[in-house]
Amino acid sequence: MNLFNKYKHLPAFVLLGPACFGQYQFEVKNASKSYDAVIHVDNCYDGRCNGKGTVDLFDHKNTKVQTFVSDDLVLNLNEGEKPTQGKMFQLKNENSPIIIDDFNFDGTEDIAVRNGNMGNYSSASYDVYVFNSTRMAFVKSKELTDLASSSFDIFEVDAKRKRLIAYGKSGCCDIFTTEYAVIPNKGLDKVLEKEEDMTVEGRVKVITKEKINNKWVTKTKVYPSEQYNREK
């Protein structure tokens, strides 16, 4: 009998036992509509935690689902928060080193686990695992992990348009946006690239390349800086 199933009604931190007492421990209740999480990380100081860590994912019945390992599980604490080794600390979702969402638009939740600062301009990077309904487990996605480890922080999920949107920058004044469609059983398909060039004072040059009917169409526009709205 699975030990976690036998004692599934006990709190998560009790199930973990004394093995993790040398680490800092965090619990994220309602990390998503389906899951809670218990996080262990080696080091915490000055409002920041990092180092080798693990994420134990539980369903809302307190049954352990899967464990994820990170070489550098970075998380930031709010001012005044001081966790203690061996004592469970309640972590708010906004400080959590995990992101749970449907990244491949198949109707099931997936998980991204923080792994250092390898993104664009040393921003946050993540290992991304998608739920495989055949294996009934989360499986690491190389494509999504590469995207989440090279962009400026993790990509944005546009569920309505079924797009993943990645951002990046070069210097102070060149911003890049790339959109991907997720093709079932195939992977990512780049469908849009936009560069917003603000290197010349007083103007913004916008170059948009979009895949339309499997052909790339390029448009270039120049706006006065005071009239340019990035959201349009």
Describe this structure in words.
- The termini are far apart.
- Strands 1, 2, 3, 4, 5 and 6 form a six-stranded mixed β-sheet that branches. A six-stranded antiparallel β-sheet has the order 11-12-13-14-15-16.
- It is mostly beta strands and 232 residues long.
- A hairpin with a 4-residue loop joins strand 3 and strand 4.
Beta-sheet strand percentage?
A: over 45%
Number of helices: 3
Q: Work out the number of β strands.
A: 16
How confident is the prediction overall: mean pLDDT? 90
Pick out the low-confidence regions: 1-20
Question: What is shown here, in short?
Answer:
It contains three helices and 16 strands. The protein is mostly beta strands.
List the helices and strands and how they pair.
Layout: H1 3-6, H2 12-16, E1 24-28, E2 35-45, E3 48-59, E4 64-70, E5 75-76, E6 88-90, E7 98-101, E8 110-114, E9 126-132, E10 137-140, H3 142-148, E11 156-158, E12 163-170, E13 174-183, E14 187-197, E15 203-212, E16 215-224
Parallel strand pairs: 1-6
Antiparallel strand pairs: 1-2, 2-3, 3-4, 3-5, 7-8, 8-9, 9-10, 11-12, 12-13, 13-14, 14-15, 15-16
